[in-house]
Amino acid sequence: MSSRLADKRILITGAAQGIGLAIAKAVLREDASVYLIDRDEMLLREESERLKGEGYRVGYAAADITDAKAIAAVVEQARDEIGQLNALINNAGVNVFSEPLETTDEEWNRCFDINLKGAWNCCKAVLPGLIKQGGGVILNIASTHAFTIIPHTFPYPLAKHALLGMTKSLGLEYAPRNIRVNALAPGYVATQKVIDYWNSFPDPVAAEAETMKLHPGGRIATPEEIALAAVFMISDECPFMNATCLTVDGGLSVQQHPA
Ligand SMILES: NC(=O)c1ccc[n+]([C@@H]2O[C@H](COP(=O)([O-])OP(=O)(O)OC[C@H]3O[C@@H](n4cnc5c(N)ncnc54)[C@H](O)[C@@H]3O)[C@@H](O)[C@H]2O)c1
Fold first, then answer.
1. Which of helix, strand or coil describes residue 186?
2. 189 lines ligand 1 (CB under 6 A)
3. Could you tell me what percent of the chain has a pLDDT over 90?
4. Does the CA dihedral 81-5-38-50 come out positive or negative?
5. Which of 43, 94, 121 has most ligand 1 atoms within 8 Å of its beta carbon, as the pocket-test mutant?
6. What's the confidence (pLDDT) of residue 1?
7. Which numbered atom of ligand 1 lies nearest the CA of 38?
8. How far away, in angstroms, is 199 Cα from ligand 1 center?
9. The pLDDT value given to residue 235
């Protein structure tokens, strides 16, 4: 264990699995304290208790980030349990993929409620505490969908573009308060979400092979590789990084097309 995040008390959303859980484990290995949120109560309890059993400082609460009132209460609870928060990682998100004209109002609302408003609900609950204590860090887990478009994935990329907009806006608004707000943009990452995406095709094995072929290195990221970037971005190792986005996609988004 090292101590790059020894003074950090971090709230992480969507932390019961995938990228959020990998980030939780990575920051704990750097001596941080965490408060984990997820709407999947059973999985959250199981993973959080396992980490507590390993001796880490972990609090947790089942909550839906679309419920602003519940999130405000959870932030109070987090403060009581692990102390005044000084970092927030907005990771919870869902794929909502459709054709523009086939997108229902329910799909549109679910996409924006979770991927954008949910992140804002958490910022709104945490920011007053960060301001009061003289600074802090917010990291929004965006996506390469925040600046590129894959056809047939409407309206998910719109919400991620907006999340990047929110990152820039809040980064500027709160820089005078010593608060850094940044986004991390993964490409494809090996989580359940991506397995579900492959399974949505008639031939999931062929879909997976196609995804791998898109990548210059012939593979997609592990959640742990995304977590390494997150640790750096919330640490004091990049004190002047603000209102920007770090892409971690193995080169996927800069190629004109695969070779
Ligand atoms: N996996 C990828 O390829 C990939 C790529 C780019 C960006 N991302 C982004 O990374 C983040 C995490 O993705 P993942 O692949 O680890 O997903 P995942 O589905 O494996 O895990 C997401 C977690 O968030 C929780 N969650 C979802 N909606 C919630 C809500 N309303 N309230 C509270 N918790 C909620 C889920 O229960 C789940 O445990 C998302 O924002 C996603 O858009 C993922």
1. strand
2. yes
3. 97
4. negative
5. 94
6. 75
7. 34
8. 17
9. 98
Domain 9-186+222-246 homologous superfamily, CATH:
NAD(P)-binding Rossmann-like Domain (3.40.50.720)
Residue identified by tokens 């080169």 is 251
155: preceding bond cis by omega (within 30 degrees): yes
| Distance between CA atoms of residues 53 and 43, nearest Å | 15
Active-site residue set: 156
Q: What is the model's pLDDT at position 33?
A: 98
79-130 residue pLDDT tens: 999 999 999 999 999 999 999 999 999 999 999 999 999 999 999 999 999 9
**Span from the CA of 91 to the centroid of ligand 1 (angstroms):** 6
Among candidate residues 100, 104, 245, the one with its CA nearest the CA of residue 161 = 245
* CATH 3.40.50.720-classified regions of the chain: 9-186+222-246
* Assessment of whether the complete model's pTM goes beyond 0.85: yes
Which residues are within 8 A (CB) of 155 and not within 5 positions of it... i.e. 6 or more apart? 96, 98, 100, 103, 107, 108, 111, 112
128-158: burial string, b at 16+ Cβ within 10 Å, e else = ebbeeeeebbbbbbbbbbbbbeeeebbbbbb
**Residue whose CA is at the smallest distance from ligand 1 atom 42:** 93
Residue % of the chain over a pLDDT of 70? 100
Spatial separation of the C-alpha atoms in residues 36 and 74, rounded to whole Å: 10
